[in-house]
Amino acid sequence: MKKVIFVLSLSALVFSCKDDDISPCSSSVSADKIAAVDQTQLQKDITAIDAYLASKSIVAIKDASGVRYVVSTAGDDSKPCLESQVKVNYTGKLLTTGVVFDSSKGTPVTFPLSNLILGWQIGFPNFGKGTKATLYIPSVFAYGKNAAGSIPANSNLIFDIELISF
Q: Which of 21, 68, 148, 156 might form a disulfide with 95, Cβ 3.0–4.6 angstroms?
């Protein structure tokens, strides 16, 4: 009798869970994390990024958070989420000077998206596999008031990225 109940329970579980019922992304950057940043600095960052974009005649998509991005090559319809391991090629530059502070140098690297700066966590769920894009990240979603290596405090960042897989 116990075996019959086990088999029936297992069958009910298998047939009640369809692939289309399971969301591939169960989390995204919370509104609380975005709201927790220094709002005064965020407004300064957005103003500086928007002025930079206007001066270069760049039309960017404006995320409500303040992150801006331009997609040069659209990827597929699949999108990463915070739990994803993202495999990317990237180059990071300072908005004010264009100086490169980091790069994968054409060799793809893999990171857990949840371990990366908030700007990547906000931006990457907008990109499908194969996307090439440029992210314009306010300092508050990068390293904020803290300097990091060759990145001065309150630096807005530009990342040229290629999302290879996740």
A: 156
